[in-house]
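FW: tagging you since you asked about this chain on Friday. Here's the raw sequence from the shared folder, copied in full. Didn't touch anything.
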Amino acid sequence: MYGFSSASEGNGGWAGYGVLLPIAVGAVSLALFTWRQLAIPEPLLDLRAFGYRIFRISVLIMIIVMMAMFAAMMLLPIFLQNALDYTPLKAGLVMLPGGVIMGIMSPVTGRLFDKFGAKWLAIAGLTLIGNTLWQFAHITLSTSYSTIMLFNTLLMLGISMLMMPVMTNALNELPPPMYPHGTAIIGTLQQVAGAVGTALLVTVMMNGSRKYLEHPLSGQDESALQALALIAGMKNASLLAFGLVAVAWVASFFLKRAHGPEQKRAAKQVSPG
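HL: got it, structure written out here
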């Protein structure tokens, strides 16, 4: 996370030692941690959970969605206040309907999950998220307040459609003794993904703005120039998030419905022999 957040022009960009060294140290440390957890009889996190295909795919989808969600929660207020000159209250109110929608959708997605499973909810939710990020990449100074509020609400709607179903489906794939490890793995990776996603996309946004200011269009005052630079940075960050969501969208087609222990026991009881 420190490496990603350090990828600014002042540190030499993505090729600077201040970026590559922390990322390399983090990667080696993670590899050693993985080796250690697989070698000891009672691991802190039983990473053998990744041996289950549906769990693996589900974790990938959730990591990408958490990166997109946390980044949007950070990028959008910055953009609204600095590019469109919204007050903090007005910028906060843009985010409000999305939070309300996520709360309302929790019981609804539970019923839809029971009926349709996680796959189609994930596909629909990621389609909505990807479309919204694409729209964010094309925001201009003339985009209305209500339109931005609608985009954010649709983004949160898409996230609410898949987070709980995909997580439940992932845990259902595991044997019951591994439930605590699966839950801990998912919770840990969600937090790390949110932090890394925020650091990465904020850095991309700031670098995009800085590059725009290096070659400004003529005939613009300082405030308009800063606003257009932020729009350019927002476009870069949104397109990167869109690309990540596209990967998760493709992965969602490989999801299958996993059954919990009660359903597995019931299936054994009715099976011949």
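FW: Residues 266-271 have pLDDT under 50 and may be disordered.
HL: agreed, and The longest helix spans residues 179-214.
FW: great, closing this out.
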